Structure prediction request, 168 residues.
Amino acid sequence: MILVALDASVLINFLVVAKVGLLSSLPGFGFVVPEEVASEIRRPSQAEVLAHALDNGHLRPLGPMAPREADDFLRLNEDFGRGESACLAVAKARGWFVACDERGAFLNRAREVLGEGRVLDTPTLLMLAIDAGLITITEADELKAELEKARFKMSFGSFRDLPEVGCE
Prediction:
C-alpha cells in the first residue's frame, strides 16, 4: 500500500466535486490527513464531509508527528504553508508520497526531499481513477470542468489528451 500525505490543495479539489470517496477507492493507496491540513478546510460543509471521511476510515488522520518530523515541519514552515510543510515532513520521514497541487518552489523541494515521482496531483489522481475503472474519461472531464469553475485550471483540454499516468 502506498501511503500518501494529503495536502489541502488536492483535498479541497476532491471536496469541491464531492469525490473524496474516489480517493479511498483507489486500489493500492491510503490517504492520510495531517491536522495542519484538516485545519485549512474552513468551509463548514467541506469540513463536515472531511470529518465524515475521517470518522468512517475513508481517509486517515495523521496523529502526532514524531520529534524528527516536527523539527522538519518547523524548518519547512519557514518557506511553505503549514499543510504543505506537514505533508512533506511526514512523507520524508516515513517514505510516503505527497498529494499536492503546488508548483514552483514547493514541487522543487518535494522532488529534492522525496525523489522523483513521489508527488501526486489532482490530474494524476483522476488518471489513476480512470485507469482503475472507477470513473470514465468523460466523467473525469466533467470533474475537470467543475474544478475549472472553482478556479482550478488544468493545463490540458481533456483527459483523452494525456498519454499516461505519471507522478511529478
About this structure: DSSP finds nine helices and five strands in the chain. The longest strand covers residues 2-6. The mean pLDDT is 92. The radius of gyration is 15 Å.
